[in-house]
Amino acid sequence: MNTALYIHIPFCRQKCSYCSFVSAPLDKRAPAVIAALKQEMCLYPKNTKIDTVFFGGGTPSVLENNALPQLLAAARERFILSENSEITAEANPESVTPALLAAWRAAGINRLSFGVQSANDENLRLLGRLHTFVEAKKAIRYAREAGFEHINADLIYNLPGQSTAAFEADLHALLALGIDHLSCYALSIEEGTPLAEMPLPIQDEDIAVEQWMSAGRICAQYGLHRYEVSNYAKPGAQCRHNLHYWHNDPYFGLGPAAHGARRANGCWLRTANVPDINAYLQAVFGEGTLSQSTQIGREEEQFESIMLETRTTEGLRLAAFEARYGVRFTERYKTAIDCACAQGLATLSNTHFALTERGLLLQNRVLLSFMD
Ligand code: SF4
Question: Which residue's alpha carbon is nearest to atom 5 within ligand 1?
Answer without folding.
Answer: 15
